[in-house]
Structure formats: structure tokens, C-alpha cells
Amino acid sequence: MRYAATLDDNSKIVTNLIIILTLVISFRQITDISHDATVTTTMLFILVPAILIAWCLSPQYYTITATEILIKRPLVSISISLQDVVRLRSITEEELGSSSRLLAVGGVFGYLGTYRSSEIGKYERWCTNRENLVLIESYNKKWIISPSEADDFVKSVNKIINVVEQSS
């Protein structure tokens, strides 16, 4: 089953503002007649790769198969084996407590990377919005994703996990 990864309003605003800012700086770079474009060149060397990296890391959709949860991204997808899943449940942003980014992007094409939460500890977040959050826990790792229909996603995965556990 396939679940959409839609951006929330905050991510849409931040993403669009960063892209517009980059386009304005690019236009300024092209039209600069003073030949002193060091500042705009530096900004473009930072912004363009940051935007490309964020896009490459952002989830396009989530898929459940008989054996895994797949977080489909443009460059490299993330695969979580259902055999490794210990617990899977819907959560809210408030249940995370205060979170800090360890190596992460917060808003451009979603909320992506490694975070630390006061409530659940270290986790990887591959979300495009702050609603519909699903916490996936394995023995040694935690992920938070944001499929479009979180409750249906949780029910579908738990059905598969329960069938796997009963047959074992």
C-alpha cells in the first residue's frame, strides 16, 4: 500500500521562501554590473546545494510491502524490515517533548534527519508535515514518518506484523 507524503503549510512556506530567495540572489548575480558579486556567489554556493540535498532526502511517499516499510526518496530510499519493528503507533508533536536537531533540516521539503527528543531519545525523522506522525521502533533505532493517512498506515502495518508474529 502506498501513502502520500504531503507538505504541511509551514514546510510549503519555508520551502517556497528559500527557493524564491535563491532565485532573487541568482537574478542579482546575473545582473550585477559592479562585478563585485562575492556575497551573492557565496550565498548561492550555500543555498543551491542545501536545497538540492534537502530535496534528495525528502520523502516522496511511503509504501508498505509484506516484508518492509519503504520511505521512498528521490536519491536513496530507506527500508525498514517489518521483522525488526518492535512497536509502531501514531503520536503527536507534543508527545516528543522538546526536540533538537543533531544533523537535520527543519522545514525545507519537510523535517528530515537525526533529532533528539526529551521523551523518546534519538530518532530519525523523515516527515513532510507535523501532523499524522507515526513512530516506528526497532530494537536499536527509532523513526518518525508522516504518511497521509496515519491511522490506516498503523492498522495496516500492525495487521502484517501480527500475522508474521503468529506464524513464527
Q: What tags apply to this protein structure?
A:
168 residues, alpha+beta, PH-domain like, 6-stranded mixed beta sheet, 4-stranded antiparallel beta sheet, 3 helices, 10 strands, elongated
Protein model, in words:
The protein is α+β, with helices and mostly antiparallel strands. It has one domain: Pleckstrin-homology domain (PH domain)/Phosphotyrosine-binding domain (PTB) (PH-domain like, Roll). The protein contains three helices and ten strands; from the N terminus they run E-H-H-E-E-E-E-E-E-E-E-E-H. The strands form two sheets. It has a six-stranded mixed beta sheet with strand order 5-9-10-8-7-6. Helix 1 packs antiparallel against helix 2. The mean pLDDT is 90.
Topology:
Elements: E1 2-4, H1 9-31, H2 38-57, E2 61-64, E3 68-72, E4 78-81, E5 85-91, E6 99-107, E7 110-117, E8 121-127, E9 133-138, E10 142-145, H3 150-167
Helix pairs in contact: 1-2
Outline:
The chain has 168 residues and is an alpha+beta fold. The chain has 3 helices and 10 strands.
